[in-house]
Amino acid sequence: DQAAPNEKLFVGIPPDWQEMPLQTTDSGTTQVYLPPGETPGNWTEMITIQNFPAARLDPQAYLEEVVRQFEEGCKVARHDGPRQGIENGYRAALAYTECRDPDPSKAQPGVQLKAIEFMAIKAIQGREGLRVIERAWHADDDAGHLRVGHEREVLVDHVARLDVGHQPHVGAARDAGGS
Question: Among candidates 114, 121, 77, 80, which has minimal Cα distance to 99?
Answer without folding.
Answer: 77
